[in-house]
Write a structure and sequence with these properties.
The chain is of the alpha/beta class. The chain has a domain of 110 residues. The protein is built from 18 helices and 15 strands. The strands form 2 sheets. Strands 1-2-3-4-5-6-7-8-9-10-11-12-13 form a 13-stranded parallel beta sheet, with no helix packed on it. The protein has a two-stranded antiparallel sheet with strand order 14-15. Strand 10, helix 12 and strand 11 form a beta-alpha-beta unit. The C terminus is likely disordered. InterPro entries: F-box-like_dom_sf (IPR036047), FBXL15_LRR (IPR057207), Leu-rich_rpt_Cys-con_subtyp (IPR006553), LRR_dom_sf (IPR032675). It comes from Artemisia annua (Sweet wormwood). This is F-box domain, cyclin-like protein.
């Protein structure tokens, strides 16, 4: 007996909306014809293998799924895909589409884009990958989709010979994110970047085009908070323009290119709100990193990769000045050694994660507590007495020691104040005991607690008493007798 028969269709549809996994929805649709119908009416996302063999089933599929807002079409082949007529029919049957993704639909042309984009009045996100239509097809979409917010273009395989007039981008007012992957004809997208006044994210990745001119045209009151310039032809000129015109920038990725200290200094001077910085294959030096570390006090994530100019000197600078830093990743910076990494033992009080990946001079055993151990020894050197501490294994708040490939550590609570405060109090207590008689009374063995600073080795934490280390092991017993 089906007890859901008493439920109205609206209640059952509400229940289906809580099924977030496609597999669960498919299994539920097999219960009955009613469940099959209601599941289809409540589904908003559909992914199809968009080959020519799909053509006869298009009407029945989209009559069944009539509430779609997100559609993904992938033929999984470069030879066979749906064509312009198929795409026009699909979009006419999905008037509520807000997200459309096309992957390797190579039989779609500019003419088809002009027609079917008129059916996508509510489109907010468009993504295409390895398609054969040209920039003109993209421009037609931008002209017809006035609510578009995200444009993601990967490797357009066909380009027009010339553009006779500047396109009219109705979507420029609403566009917030532009992602261009391996797009060589940058001049065609330059007017779009300039016209998009509300743009918050710009990602330029790969390709042979030169983007300096396009970046120079960014207005000085730009809303950009996220810029990615990875493996594109950008020099210091383009990066300086970004830094000067994007004062609200919070996330910057710079990879390869012709970037040097001049561009990075401009970033440090103008982008004081920067929170995430990635330098991939960029030859940064102490001069530029010092400006960034000094001025960008909100920097919480720093990723340095594939640079031979970053040495222990730069690490010491970062450890001293990047107070807000929480995540540090160093990859294939071959001039960074253990000395540079150990600088973070007493620097960067908010550091929660540090990763060292394939740095040649890093020898595998990194004692981040070495600096704290020296502070502890300095406290007890005057009285010549050090408290005996029992050997204990590392606890969760201690700094871990890992191998040469990757170092992952967790910051301790003692970094927020004086790292040796607990030992200072204990040293005072010991000195008070010995001040009158000159002889140390019995001190009970006390294990380390979570807030103490330990002298760490590769596996265990161990400190020994001063008296047993310097002379006869039974000296403590003789003195007590």
């Amino acid at each position: 007996m089906d007890y859901t028969n008493s439920l109205p269709d609206e209640c059952l549809a509400l229940i289906f909306n809580f099924l977030i996994f496609t597999k669960d929805r498919k299994n539920s649709s097999l219960v009955s014809h009613r469940w099959l119908r209601i599941e289809a009416q409540t589904r908003t996302r559909l992914s199809l293998k968009a080959r020519s063999e799909l053509r006869p089933f298009i009407p029945s599929i989209f009559n069944r799924f009539n509430s779609l807002t997100q559609l993904v079409l992938r033929p999984f082949t470069f030879v066979d895909s749906i064509n312009d007529n198929d795409m026009i029919l699909i979009t006419s049957m999905c008037p509520n589409l807000t997200c459309l993704k096309l992957d390797a639909c190579r039989q779609l042309t500019d003419s088809g884009m002009v027609v079917f984009s008129k059916n996508c009045k509510k489109l907010k996100e468009f993504s295409c990958r390895d398609c054969m239509f040209s920039d003109l097809g993209i421009f037609a979409l931008l002209d017809n989709s006035s609510q578009l917010e995200v444009l993601d273009v990967y490797k357009l395989c066909n380009y027009p010979t010339e553009v006779k007039a500047t396109p009219n981008f109705r979507a420029a007012e609403s566009l917030k994110v532009i992602k261009l992957w391996y797009v060589d004809n940058e001049r065609l997208f330059e007017p779009l970047i300039i016209a998009s006044k509300n743009l918050t994210s710009l990602n330029l990745i790969g390709g042979n085009g030169s983007w300096d001119r396009s970046l120079e045209m960014i207005p000085n009151d730009s809303c950009l908070v996220d810029v990615c310039l990875e493996d594109v032809n950008v020099s210091d000129v383009g990066l300086i323009s970004v830094a000067q015109n994007c004062r609200a920038l919070k996330k910057l990725w710079v990879g390869w290119g012709e970037i040097g200290d001049e561009g990075l200094i401009a970033v440090g001077k103008h982008c004081v709100n920067l929170q995430e910085l990635t330098l991939y294959g960029v030859d940064a030096s102490y001069v530029s990193l010092q400006v960034i570390a000094t001025n960008c006090q909100n920097l919480v994530t720093l990723y340095l990769s594939r640079s031979d100019t970053i040495t222990d000197v730069e690490m010491l600078c970062i450890a001293e000045k990047c107070i807000a830093l929480k995540i540090l990743i160093i990859e294939k910076c071959h001039e960074v050694s253990d000395r540079g990494i150990e600088a973070f033992a007493l620097g960067c009080p908010n550091l929660a994660e540090i990763s060292v990946i394939k740095c040649d001079k890093q020898e595998g055993v990194i004692n981040l507590n070495a600096g704290r151990a020296k502070a502890v020894n300095a406290i007890t050197s005057d009285s010549g007495v050090q408290e005996h501490v029992e050997e204990v294994p590392l606890v969760a708040n201690d700094v871990a020691v890992t191998g040469p490939e990757r170092v992952s550590t967790t910051s301790t609570s003692s970094r927020n104040g004086d790292p040796s405060s607990n030992f200072k109090e204990r040293a005072k207590a010991v000195n008070a005991i010995t001040s009158d008689s000159g002889v140390q009374e019995h001190v009970e063995e006390v294990p380390l607690v979570a807030t103490d600073v330990a002298v760490t080795g590769p596996e265990r934490v161990s400190t020994t008493s001063t008296s047993s280390r310097n002379g006869d092991p039974s000296s403590n017993f003789k003195e007590r007798s």
